[in-house]
Structure formats: C-alpha cells, structure tokens
Specification:
The complex is a heterodimer of chains A (513) and B (489). Chain A is an alpha+beta fold. Chain A contains 16 helices and 21 strands. Chain A is globular. Classes of the chains: A alpha+beta (513), B alpha+beta (489).
C-alpha cells in the first residue's frame, strides 16, 4: 500500500458538488482517497431543486444526519407527493403520492381489482381514493409513517421540500469537517495528458494548479469538463420534452402549509409551487416555441400565494443527457450530465444515484481509471435517465387540453417505443410497469396513468377469484378506512412546529452522528 | 368463457395445464390437455432449481407426497469437479454466503480478506454448501433465516413426476385426451382455430399452449441459434444403481471430451453426459460417461442439443412454453425453470380480453430477456471453465453474449455483479460461478474499507462458528427421506 492516495477533484459546489463530496467522504476511506472540491463564490448555483423524492432520506441517513436538525437548518417541510393540477384537462387534479394504492388481494395487484369493479359499473371512485398518502396530502396532514407493516399508516413514504442552497451549505460544513478540502477559485485552464487524453491539472485564477486522478464535473449547465474539455456528445430529448426555459421566483408564505408539491399546467408549460417553512418556491417552466418570456412571467406573477420576494430569474436548458457521463477520468454528475425538467423532482435523486454508483465503482488506490468500471457507471446512468424520461413524457403525452398549441403538439408527437408500449399495455390490461432498476415504481406509474386520463379497458383475469359483491364491499371498507385514518392525523404545520420549527432555533450548525 | 388447450408431453405439459387451471378456473377459463407420448424415459430425471417449490405451493402439491410418490430427493446445489483432479472443485449452493457486515454484502469482505491471504473458501460461509459437503440436509428454519438464504431444489425421476402432476391437473379440473399426433388448424389470418389429433379428432380453443418440446408442433417456425455460445450438441442420459447414502447435491465432472452430471435419488443415480459431435464420436462419448462414474448404466438414450430461442414465444393465439419456445444447453438443468418462467409470465400477461396485442408484446419482451439471462449464466460457465481437453478448449474459444462480457469485466475489475432485469440467478450464484472458475477480482467495494479489520475478522469467526454449529445439528439426507417415507406411510 505504498501508493499515494487517489486524488478526486470535484469541480463545482452546488447541490451536486456537495452531495458528491459528502457521499464520497462517507463511503470512501480517507487513507486511500484525497478529496478536493473547487467552487467559486462568483458563480451562482442553480439551486432550484427544492423538492425531492423519498430516496433523499436514505442518503441523509447514510450520512448520519439528524432529520429534525436538517429540516430546521434548511427551513424544510415534508412532502407526501405531487399534486398535478390541470394536466389532464383544466379543472381536474390528481396526486402522485409517495405511497401505495390498496394492497394485493388473492395475490393480484390492487389496480386489477379496482379496474374490474370500475368496468362493471360499480361506484368505486378513482384509484386516488385508495391511497393513504393522497388522503393525508389532501387533508394537509403529516406524521411520520408507522413502522407496523399491518397499519394503513405504514403505506407511504415521504420526501422533503428544502432550500437547496442551504442544503448545499450544510453538506459543505459536514463534508469539510470530515476531510474534504475546499478551494475557493475559478477554473480558467484545463490541461490534458497528450497520451491518454485524461485531464491532468486545473489552473485557477489565482495561478494555483490542482492535479488529480479523477475529476467530477459538477459545474452545472456549463459542463466545463465533460462538455468543454472531453467533448462528450449530447442526446437531445426536446422532441419529447419541448420546455426549454424556466422563470423562478420565491414568494411569501400563505396560511396553509401543504405537505405536497403542486404542479399546475399552464398554456405554455407548467408552474411549480414548493412550500418551505419561511417562503414558497415558485417557477414557470415553459417552451420558448410556444410561450414568450413575458407571457410566462405574467402568468407566474399572477399566480403566487403571496407577494413575490424578488424578480423572476431566467434559466435556459434543453432536455437530454450526455451520451456518456463518465469519459476518460471525468465523471459528470448533476446538470452537467443531463437535464430533465423538475416535474417529478428527479434531479436530486439522479445526483444521489450517481454518487453512490461512483463510490462503488471508484478506481482503487494505486490503480488507474478503469474503463470496465466506467462502462458499468454509464450503463446505470443510461437506465436511470431513460426510464425517468419516459415517465416525464407520459405527463405531457396523455393530456386533453385541446386547442392549446403546446399541449396539442405533445399529444400528437411520436413517443419513445418503450413508453408507447407501457401505455398500450395499461390500456389493454391494467398492467403497469414494474422494474427493478431506476425510477419509478409501479404505484407511481399508476398514479400518473390514471391521473392523465389513461384508463384500462380490462384487467388481469386472476382478479376474478374474488366474487364481485365481496370485492365491492372490500373496496368500500378500504376507502372508509383510509378516509377515517387521514382525518385523525395531525396537520403538517403542527407536526413541523413540534418537530423541526426553524423559527424556534434559527439556522444552527447541523448535528450529525 | 375461454377455452385453453395445452398440447405437450411430460412434466411441462402438466405444469402448464395445472398452473393455468388452478389460477384461472374461477375466471371461467377451462383447460384441456392433449397428452402426447413421453419423450422422457425411465433413465431421465429433472434437476430443479429452488423457485419450483413456490409453483408447487400454488398448485397445492404436497412436498412429502411428491418425494414419496416420485422417489425423488432434495438437492442443495451442484458440485463441479475435474475428473482428472487437477482443477479444484467448487459447489454452487442454493443458499447464500455469509451475513452482511455494516450493511454491506458479505462477499466484498470475503474478497478483501482473500486478497490479503485468507485461506477459507467461500463455501465454508454458506450453511447450504457446508451441509452438502458434510452429507447433511439444510432446510430453512428461523435460525438459518436470520443468517441467510437456505433454498433447495429436487431431483425428480421424470416419468414419476409427470404422473404426479397429471393427478394434480385432474384435481384442478383439467380434462385430458391422449393423442399420437397433433397439428394446428389455422384460419386465413394464421390464427389457430383448433388442434387436429389422430383418429380425426378436432379440439377447438381460444388460446393454445405449445408444450410439445423442441419440435414445437403447434407454433413451428425458426429459431435464433445459440450454437456459437455452446460447444455441446449431443447428450446421453441413463441411470445407474443408487448410492448407499444419497448425497444432497448433484455432481458434475468435467472430462477431456465433455462433462457428466449425476443426480442422485432413492431410485438411482441419473446420469447426463454432454459432448461435441465435432470432437467425439457417440461411441467414445458413451465410454467416457461410463468411466466417469464406474457403474453400469441402464435405459440410456442419446439426444441432440440445439440451444436457441424462437424470436416470439407467443405468436397469434399460440403460446410456446419451455423447449417449444427456447432450447437450453443441458448445463445446470434449467429446462423446468424455463417452463416455470413462461407460466408465471403467462399468468401476468394472460389475455384480459379478445384484444391482447400489447400483452403479447409484453410477454415476448419479458420472455426474451428472461431466457437470455438464463443463457448468460450457462454461457459464462463455458467461457470461464479451466478444465483441460479439446471440448473445453472449444468452450473457452466460443463467443459470449455482450451482457456476459460486461458482467465478467465488472467482476474482474471490482468483484461486483452487474444488476439486470429478469434475472433468474441470485448474485451469490454468479459469484460462486466466477470464483469457482478462478476469476480473481482486482479490487473490492471501497466502502467496506471503513470497517475495522478486527471487526471483520471477529464477524468471520462468528459466522464460521454458526455454520459449523448448524451443520452439526442438521439431519442427514437419508434421515429426512426416511422420515418422509414413514410419515404417511
């Protein structure tokens, strides 16, 4: 073990950079790896990824972060799902919950039973009524899930809304306290080894030269290393996801603290609403081909809960991903590797998955960069991005907002084969995608399929093992049970007041095990 | 009302008919079985994989009765040995290795310890493997569940097993016609309308299941050949005298011209020998098979092996199950597992209405990758084998599917198993195969380096002690079989 530690240099200190630094310092032994992060205060971070998926809790738990303290410090709130307003057609809404719909009966997935009763003309309502997470979200309620798997209150998970800039700030404190070296400065020159083509050193404005064995590109949309230096190609997905701009603006909080993100369809795109303890994050994602900046800004500002806290900030992007996230000795994580609009809060999950994969596939000390490990990283990266893409495209493709040019366009576009097949299969038989790798789960697909007005024509015949009268009764009981339990739950605001009120302590230092 | 007609022979016919009838009779699905003469003989046995137990449970097959009526046996895995004794043997157990440490898989720790000079083989950390080596039978209980997975398969004499399943099928309401010949009658669109049997009989149906074996008598059509991955094209099966004490695992011995598998059961030892006709004549091969185990063999049959997959397992209204859809190399006895994969997926994709194009596409998509993942496990075995002789030289030189090359690369570099959808074999099975064939990873999961070496050693000692203790408590295979024989006796 005489070899020098393997030098990892992370370029960029936004959410991706500091999640990467924190994840790697937790998963790697610092006797073998040397971790440096370069960031510049002169370069702003995007930091709009304020809504997350439940997986973030695993990441924080892995780091050993105390949840209540973390929520106080990031002004965080709880999230039981996303409410989609007007996505199918104006005036309608549904929730994509972080939880299950019903439970399997007679070894048959729940939606087949529901579809069977619905198709028989029974008044069984929407699938939404069979999700405890949906009921709790609508009631504005929140409590931590029950650990007893028999309880209806165990059938959901939760994520957070938080201030992503504060989260990055926290992780910076956490990671630097554990041995990550932070260098303030701007990269102005990049040197590559002529023989291997690998990046060898970065020169900073100060004249400092930073050498490394592996460089993680967390430079955001600029994609300094993966795009600029390595020239890795880009798969453009704007054919399916035509939105290419976003205006973001925070506003003052309203009275009710909702335990969910809201996404409202607009003529030229959609608007997000993310409630934090001290403010609400808002933004309007739109397609410049169908909507002017002025129109987007007017729409956004006309639809805020409280007074805007600043001028709307414009972001430009294109949906897509890098052909490869790991090229040579450069690994792109975060926006440098790909962009998918924040419709399903996937960006922080994609960072998290890449960080864990990178830790598992990190070259060994004393060894060089290994193309075999990079190939596996890229394979998993593709699976994650491509599956997420299909799920997002579904929200657009299945809409009935007739007469609005953007929505007419996306309703009539040719879908990726993988998605067209999933929709056809659900229509034909109520079967929903169920795969092991990557996002999203079967319940998520069900929520959005039904929510977007895609209804099954039939169901798995195995469901007929339960007599119809008994089925209708079971469905009614489950609906009532969910409703009663949701009503009995305390409010989200009360829970936060008792658990993690930022007002009580202010932003303290994050305490971690 | 929907009429399903299953035509086929041997165990696959009855598994198919009874699985569909059992699941779908309440949905007004009727099942008629067309029973063709058996292709299996008295020398044949099925070596089954652990998932079959769950299918049996669905069919309400009682395990004790099954073993008593078939004179079958348990099996804890397969031992791969070199007939010349040159290359060390390894056992693929149907159970897991070790217990996690600090939330990480045991294997990475073992790998690290081994690269630092640890001399304890992987199988010593498996309850299942250790039991098999000590002539014991390890069936899962609360203690073993806390440690790891302890699964098992069976060795089932083929004709007796088919008889038991035929009884099960009748119990679930399957009606039966025996036939010598069968063909599908098709309409102008190519959809099957009925099956035509000898004696001018005609059996109408809505959906037809082809379990007729490699001839694919109903569905017909060509196949994508997997010949380039697999060297063996001839297979001999026969049976010999039973062992005095019945081992609880299968023994597979590699010789210069091929390999010989031995599946013990109370009725005897069932032998399968595979070779390449390009390298060895049938006569020489049979001599090699007899020499491999040194006992007289009876009821011998030579068959050809043509691995390959029909591009669409389900076409029109005919679903091909088992060998009618995909033929596998004889390595590791995966045939019944392939049948089971097809049936479980058929229930998931069973026509919900008269219009089932998307469900058929889904079935074909899932079956393609399910079959290919099983093929990958077999292909890796041939590609990595270190045994000497012309057969193995051919095996090593054979092509490997791209997914296998990826898996081998990742394992060599990091000791990790790349995850795939529709995978039949657990990561520990892949690890056994790779380690057993001498693949030595160059590094391990970096995250485990945060566990103190003393903690790792203490955990290893604790695991080895637990395995030893459990194995000593376990009964012998013969004791368990005797108890079963007497239980209803």
């Amino acid at each position: 073990m005489a070899a020098a530690p393997f030098r990892i240099v992370i370029v960029g200190g936004g959410t991706a950079g500091w999640m990467c630094a924190a994840g790697l310092v937790r998963l790697l032994a610092l006797t073998d790896y040397d971790l440096t992060l370069i960031e510049s205060d002169a370069i702003g971070t995007v930091g709009v990824g304020e809504a997350t998926l439940p997986h973030i809790k695993n990441f924080n738990d892995m780091l050993g972060i105390d949840e209540a303290q973390f929520l106080r410090d990031t002004r965080g709130t709880f999230k039981l799902g996303i409410e989609f307003v007007g996505w199918d057609r104006p005036g309608e809404a549904y929730v994509h919950p972080f939880g299950t719909f019903g439970e399997p009966w007679a070894s048959v997935d729940f939606q087949h039973h529901w579809a069977r009763a619905m198709l028989a003309g029974e008044a069984v309502g929407s699938l939404q009524e069979y999700s405890f997470a949906v009921a709790a979200a609508k009631a504005g309620a929140f409590e931590l899930p029950n650990e007893d798997p028999k309880s209806i209150r165990s059938t959901y998970a939760y994520a957070y809304h938080f201030d992503a800039t504060l989260y990055a700030h926290f992780l910076r404190g956490w990671a630097t306290a554990r041995g990550v070296k932070r260098i303030e400065g701007q990269v102005i020159d990049i040197t590559r080894d002529p023989a291997s083509g690998h990046v060898s050193t970065l020169r900073l404005e100060s004249g400092a030269e930073i050498g490394g064995d592996l460089f993680v590109d967390c430079s955001g949309f600029r994609a300094l290393l993966v795009g600029g230096t390595m020239g890795v190609g880009w798969h453009d997905w704007s054919e399916w996801l035509p939105c290419d701009r976003a205006l973001a603006v925070p506003c003052a909080s309203a009275a009710e603290l909702t335990p969910f993100t809201r996404s409202t369809a607009r003529r030229g795109g959609w608007q997000w609403r993310i409630p934090l303890q001290h403010r609400i994050g808002n933004g309007h994602v739109f397609s410049s081909a169908f909507c002017s900046e002025q129109e987007a800004s007017d729409t956004l500002l006309a639809n805020l809960d409280g007074p805007a806290l600043g001028e709307p900030r414009l972001l430009r992007f294109q949906a897509g991903r890098r052909a490869r996230a790991w090229e040579g000795n450069v690994v792109a994580i975060g926006l440098s590797s790909g962009f998918l609009e924040p419709l399903e809060s996937t960006s922080i999950f994609l960072i998290q998955a890449a960080v864990v994969d990178l830790a598992n596939l990190m070259p060994a000390r004393g060894g060089g960069v290994d193309a075999r490990l990079a190939a596996e990283f890229n394979r998993l990266f593709e699976v994650h991005c491509d599956r997420t893409r299909d799920f997002l495209v579904l929200h657009y493709a299945a809409n009935r907002r007739h007469g609005e040019p953007l929505w007419d366009h996306v309703r009539n576009m040719t879908l990726p084969d993988s998605l067209a097949h999933k929709i056809a299969l659900f229509r034909e038989s109520a079967a929903a995608p169920d795969y092991k790798l990557g996002l999203f789960s079967r319940d998520s697909w069900l929520a959005v399929l039904e929510g977007q007005g895609v209804l099954p024509r039939s169901y798995n015949r195995l469901a007929e093992r339960i007599p119809m009268a008994e089925l209708v009764e079971k469905l009614a009981e489950l609906r009532d049970y969910i409703r009663l339990n949701a009503v009995a739950m305390g409010s989200h605001a009360e829970f936060i007041a008792g658990y993690c009120d930022a007002g009580a302590s202010g932003a303290g230092a994050m305490v971690a095990a | 009302m929907m009429r399903v007609v299953v035509a086929g022979r041997d165990a696959p016919l009855w598994l198919a008919a009874s699985t569909i009838a059992r699941a779908l009779a309440p949905a007004s699905v009727t099942v008629e079985a067309i029973e063709l003469p058996p292709a299996m003989g008295p020398g044949d046995a099925y070596a089954t994989l652990p998932p079959l137990e769950a299918l049996h449970a669905q069919l309400r097959v009682d395990e004790d009765a099954l073993l008593r009526l078939t004179q079958g046996a348990f099996t804890l895995g397969q031992n791969f040995a070199d007939a010349s004794g040159e290359v060390p043997a390894f056992l693929h157990p149907y159970g897991s290795f070790g217990a996690p440490i600090d939330g990480h898989d045991f294997f990475a720790y073992w790998l690290k310890a081994r690269l630092h000079g640890l001399n304890v083989p992987l199988e010593d950390f498996s309850l299942t493997a250790a039991a098999a080596r000590h002539g014991r039978l390890m069936l899962p209980d609360d203690d073993s569940e806390r440690y790891g997975r302890c699964d098992y398969g069976y060795h089932l004499p083929a004709l007796a097993y088919a008889r038991v399943l035929k009884g099960i099928a009748a119990h679930h309401g399957v009606t039966v016609q025996a036939a010598e010949t069968v063909t599908a009658e098709r309409d102008a669109d190519g959809r099957a309308t009925a099956l035509l049997l000898d004696g001018g009989r005609r059996v109408e149906g809505d959906l037809f299941v082809d379990a007729t074996g490699p001839e694919a008598l109903l569905i017909g059509g060509g196949r994508e050949s997997w010949r380039s991955f697999f060297p063996a094209d001839r297979v001999f099966s026969a049976s010999g005298a039973r062992f005095a004490a019945i081992p609880a695992y299968a023994e597979v011995r590699a010789s210069a011209g091929g390999w010989t598998a031995l599946y013990p059961s109370p009725t005897g030892r069932h032998v399968v020998h595979a070779w390449s006709s390009a390298l060895t004549s049938d006569e020489d091969a049979l001599g090699e098979a007899a020499a491999a185990f040194g006992v007289p063999l009876a009821a011998g049959v030579v068959r050809s092996s043509e691995p390959g997959r029909r591009p669409l397992a389900w076409e029109g209204n005919i679903v091909a199950i088992g060998e009618a859809a995909c033929g596998f190399d004889p390595f590791h006895g995966v045939d019944l597992h392939a049948v089971q994969l097809g049936l479980i997926n058929l229930l998931a994709c069973f026509p919900a209405s008269a219009d089932y194009g998307a469900q058929r596409d889904e079935y074909n998509r899932v079956m393609q990758s399910s079959f290919e993942r099983v093929r990958d496990f077999q292909s890796a075995h041939y590609a990595l084998a270190r045994w000497r002789g012309p057969f193995w030289d051919t095996a090593r030189a054979a092509e490997v599917p791209a997914e296998v090359a990826q898996r081998i690369d990742l394992f060599r570099a990091r000791g990790e198993i790349a995850p795939f959808e529709e995978e039949s074999f657990a990561p520990d099975s892949w690890r056994t195969l790779f380690v057993g064939h001498g693949l030595v990873p160059e590094s391990w999961l970096p995250a485990i380096d945060r566990t103190a070496p003393d903690e790792m050693k203490a955990q290893f000692r604790r695991m080895l002690g637990f395995v030893r203790e459990q194995v000593l408590k376990a009964p012998t295979h013969d004791q368990v079989l005797a108890t079963i024989a007497q239980r209803h006796g």
